[in-house]
Amino acid sequence: MIPKVGAQFVRGLLMGAADVVPGVSGGTIALIVGIYETLIDQVRAGAKALGMLVRGDLRGFWKQVRGLDVTFLLPLAIGILLAVGGLASVLETQLEENPEEMAGLFFGLVAASVLIGWDLISARTSTHLAIVLLVAVAIFFGLGFQSGPITDPSPVVLVGAGALAICAMILPGISGSFILLMIGMYATVIGAVDDRAFGDLALVGIGAVVGLALFSTLLGWLLDHHGDTVMAAMVGLMLGSLRVLWPWPNGVGVISEDESEVIDGTGLELPAGDELLGPVALGMIGFVIVRVLARIGKRLER
Fold first, then answer.
1. Mean pLDDT in order along the chain per 10 residues (302 residues)
2. Domain, as residue range, for 134
3. Which of 32, 64, 76, 194 could form a disulfide with 88 if both were Cys (CB 3.0 to 4.6 A apart)?
């Protein structure tokens, strides 16, 4: 029992680290370490329990809760939370001090994740390629109207961000933090984790619970019946959203204490010579990290 719990805790750390960085997703890590199907089943069961609770079926709720695999879920959740909490401060500092370099790293991570997502389509056809391109073009131009991060989000926005992020976290190929970055909420949520802003975090958490309750069954059904189409759309989303991560002039960053903006997700300027090396080098490192993880995952599947 102890080795099983310890291994699950390590899996949680890996998933949390993946989800806090806008690159390879926690869902992809779950695939790599061989727990994805079990995770989806447990999430569906938990969503069913929440539905019973909302309907006032307390007996059914407790029966469903007792059926959950606590030795699977609890150490996994603890590992995820510790990884998110431990990395938040480091990421916030780096985003403030080295926004272009961090954008380059994230760009490489997401670019490699695009290839992973494409590989996850089991029967690739011209239709799937068309879906990828259509979604990518729509997202690319749609993000051209993005004005930057949301600096003072309302409670409704925080709840909505949590719902969107948690749905992405359980999909292989796309991370919840990437969705937060795309909608301008990444810096806010990372800052809230680092600053222990429990009010904001509670609202994000409520959104995550609501998102799981409302969408986990739907997402599971879509993956079961239209998995390739869903993955094609996710690949297009990531591909088009690389616009947000373009490092120049300010591809990613946070709002500093003096409220100066150091992020502009729509900038597509070319870099000066001395600005090129750091972001490109980190982008290549990020790309290689994700590809290595993908290779490990394929070996584990054999």
1. 71 80 70 76 81 81 88 89 81 76 82 82 89 89 63 85 80 71 79 83 87 74 82 84 68 44 52 74 86 67 50
2. 2-301
3. 194
- Count Cα neighbours of 266 within 13 Å in the Cβ-side half-sphere: 12
DSSP state of 272: P
- How far apart are the C-alpha atoms of 284 and 5, rounded to whole Å? 35
What is the per-residue pLDDT for 253? 43
Amino acid at 172: P
As a residue count, the chain comes to 302
Greatest Cα pair distance, the chain, in angstroms, is 66
Rounded CA gap, 32 and 21, in Å?
17
Specify the 3-state DSSP secondary structure of 211.
helix
Rounded-to-integer distance, Cα 133 and Cα 141, Å: 12
Structural domains counted in the chain: 1
Q: Look-up: residue for tokens 């001395």?
A: 274
User: Considering the entire predicted model, what is its pTM?
Assistant: 0.65
Q: pLDDT, tens digit, for every residue of 100-115?
A: 788 788 888 888 878 8
What is d(CA 116, CA 139) in angstroms, rounded to the nearest whole number? 19
* Residue 216 to residues 25, 146, 166, 171, 223, Cα–Cα distance (Å): 16, 28, 9, 10, 10
